[in-house]
Amino acid sequence: MNSFSLKESKSLKEKYYHTTLENGFRITVVPKQLSAVYAMICCNFGGADLEYEKNGELFSLPAGTAHFLEHKMFESEDGSDSFLEFDKFGGNANAFTSFENTCYYFSCTDNFYENLDILLKSVSSVHFTKASVKKEKMIISREIKMYDDMPSSTVARNLSKALYFNHPTRFAVSGTVETISEITKETLARAYNDFYVPENLSLCVCGNADPEAIKQAVEKYFSQKSGSRPKTVFREEPRGVNQKRISESAQVASELYCIGIKCAPSPKNNLASYKRDVSMRLLMSLLFGRASDFYCRSYENGLINERFYAGYNQSRQSAHIIISGSGSEYERVMQAAFDEIEYRKSNFFTEEQILREKKSAYAVSLTLFDSGEDITVAMSDSARLEYDEYDCIEALRSITSEDIKSALDSIDTKNSAISIIQKGKDL
């Protein structure tokens, strides 16, 4: 395997092989003796890539374009569905689109190389007609309307609209019925040609497979391709929030709420930024996790229930804390949560509390390496970053009380908003 480099973690007793083709296509192979083999192609193109610059020219895409393209990727030239080909060889295939990536994957117990060939062939070219795009609009519109009818989805989406003025996270990854109506065959072709270039693609395989054979399979479909990823353009985002409050009514048994605190985003591609993000996630667990003083106190007095959640969402050029739950006391919950944040700024956590959260997070991180599917997803995502999952483990161990305190001090509860789903009058 002269063309592959080996990286090992002695502490984790894990290893993987990696290489980059001359055109920029990245390949990662994690050797594991598993009953199944997992493979994923990841394209660094997602719901947030709505405006971009190429050769000095600015282009825009309707919200939902990346997700729409994902739906069309498995359509063959003769109009047949590639999923039927996977079925022939026992491959369990699927795909998903996030704000940052679009990923196509399969797992199988046999016929790995046949399934890999289908995956590579599907992603290496696209075939669609005006009629097929029109048909897909109807399918995706139904999907969007289904989520529009889900209060839990609406309350979260409205929070993004309240927090952000311009960032694409204001839109669902799938877009809206209105935005996807603007998508044409030409729109999809341009998005594919601009973003599905080798430099912007990576393949990760986990299981019992030969790296050199995988490389040859990739070269069969991508060696003649080239091109550079265009630069995504984000409009300037004000520091404050767009709206302090959004409220809707729906047929729910109990009110739903999402409270958000807008934070300063940081680049995602380096380890220092990763440490800041993990410090914030550890902080959220210390403040509001199920072992926290706040959670135990609030649960006992009936202020919150088991649906209460607190976390940190970070994407390209956006970052915010989210506190969600159900019940009519959302105003009291919001004030109590903000009071807890301010209280902890002057009454910080003990070293024992911090160590407990770090150990818990470390244990969860280690379970990643027990799952071929989880390894594949994680390594696919980190292929375009300056660090990998081994580095993440070490970064977690190195986080200090000062790192967490810095994350706490950066929170400004004035940059907050709340989204509420009220009970309908007939309930």
Give the secondary structure arrangement, pairings included.
Elements: E1 5-9, E2 14-20, E3 26-31, E4 37-43, E5 51-54, E6 57-60, H1 65-72, H2 82-88, E7 92-97, E8 102-108, H3 112-124, H4 130-148, H5 151-163, H6 177-180, H7 185-195, E9 201-207, H8 211-222, E10 231-232, E11 245-250, E12 256-262, H9 271-288, H10 293-300, E13 309-315, E14 318-326, H11 330-346, H12 351-367, H13 372-382, H14 389-398, H15 401-409, E15 416-423
Parallel strand pairs: 3-9, 11-15
Antiparallel strand pairs: 1-2, 2-3, 4-8, 4-9, 5-6, 5-10, 7-8, 12-14, 12-15, 13-14
Helix pairs in contact: 1-7, 3-8, 9-14, 9-15
Written overview of the protein:
This protein has 2 domains: 5-232, Metalloenzyme, LuxS/M16 peptidase-like (Cytochrome Bc1 Complex, Chain A, domain 1), CATH 3.30.830.10; 245-423, Metalloenzyme, LuxS/M16 peptidase-like (Cytochrome Bc1 Complex, Chain A, domain 1, 2-Layer Sandwich), CATH 3.30.830.10. It is 41% helix and 22% strand. α9 packs across α15. A 7-stranded mixed sheet has the order 1-2-3-9-4-8-7, sandwiched between helices. Strands 11-15-12-14-13 form a 5-stranded mixed sheet. Strands 6-5-10 form a 3-stranded antiparallel sheet, with no helix packed on it. The chain has helices at 65-72, 82-88, 112-124, 130-148, 151-163, 177-180, 185-195, 211-222, 271-288, 293-300, 330-346, 351-367, 372-382, 389-398, 401-409, and strands spanning 5-9, 14-20, 26-31, 37-43, 51-54, 57-60, 92-97, 102-108, 201-207, 231-232, 245-250, 256-262, 309-315, 318-326, 416-423. The radius of gyration is 23 Å and the shape is globular. The model has no long low-confidence stretch (mean pLDDT 94). A hairpin with a 4-residue loop joins β1 (5-9) and β2 (14-20). The protein is an alpha+beta fold and 427 residues long.
